[in-house]
């Protein structure tokens, strides 16, 4: 719960560095292009809305979990995740959390450039069958 409150508080602040970039003037009447924007310095903000993805794979099938993680995150290559909330589905709470933990343990192997240093949390959804996880990925804004 504290994590959710923190995310909401961080999201309400917006991205002051991103706003400064969009406020730059456009090229003048001479038609000369301005220099490309510099990469902002300072703290990064976290997007308010997560990217939601899901995978299906047996907990013991490491290669399939990694392959599914790569597949569902392919279109987000080049971005870096700040926080990942993973919900393992199972009728048993302990087994659901264990599956979420297993999936999270393989994130860095699936996409090291995306998930290195990412904060993860393991949760359970008390429904459905085992071998399914829903992920909420909160990316940095830049």
Structure characterization notes:
Helix content is about 35%, strand content about 20%. The chain is built from six helices and four strands, in the order ααβαβαααββ. The protein has helices at about 1-10, 15-20, 60-75, 95-105, 105-110, 110-115; strands at about 50-55, 80-90, 120-125, 130-140. A four-stranded mixed beta sheet has the order 1-4-2-3. The protein is elongated and about 60 Å long.
Brief synopsis:
By secondary structure, the chain is of the alpha+beta class.
Topology diagram in text:
Blueprint: H1 2-12, H2 16-22, E1 51-56, H3 62-73, E2 81-89, H4 93-105, H5 107-110, H6 112-115, E3 119-125, E4 132-139
- Strand order, biggest sheet? 1-4-2-3
How many separate helices?
6
Describe the main β-sheet briefly: 4 strands, mixed
User: What is the β-strand count?
Assistant: 4
Mean pLDDT: 85
As a percent range, the share of helical residues equals: 25-40%
What's the N-to-C terminus distance?
A: 26 Å
Strand % is: 15-25%
- The succession of helices and strands, N to C, reads HHEHEHHHEE
Query: Unreliable segments (pLDDT under 50, ≥5 consecutive)?
Result: none
Please identify the structural class as seen in this structure. alpha+beta
* Radius of gyration of CA atoms, rounded to a whole number: 19 Å
Q: So what's the overall shape?
A: elongated
């Amino acid at each position: 719960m504290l994590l959710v409150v923190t995310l909401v508080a961080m999201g309400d602040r917006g991205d002051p560095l991103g706003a400064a970039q969009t406020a730059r003037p456009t090229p003048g009447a001479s038609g000369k292009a301005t220099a490309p924007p510099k990469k902002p310095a300072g703290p990064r903000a976290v997007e308010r809305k997560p990217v939601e993805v899901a995978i299906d794979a047996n907990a013991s099938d490491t290669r399939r979990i990694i392959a599914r993680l790569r597949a569902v995150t392919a279109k987000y290559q080049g971005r870096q995740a700040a926080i990942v909330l993973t919900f393992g589905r199972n009728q048993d709470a302990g087994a659901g959390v264990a599956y979420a933990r297993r999936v999270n343990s393989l994130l860095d192997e699936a996409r090291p450039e995306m998930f290195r240093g990412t904060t993860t949390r393991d949760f359970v959804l008390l429904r459905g069958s085992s071998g399914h996880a829903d992920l909420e990925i909160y990316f940095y804004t830049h």
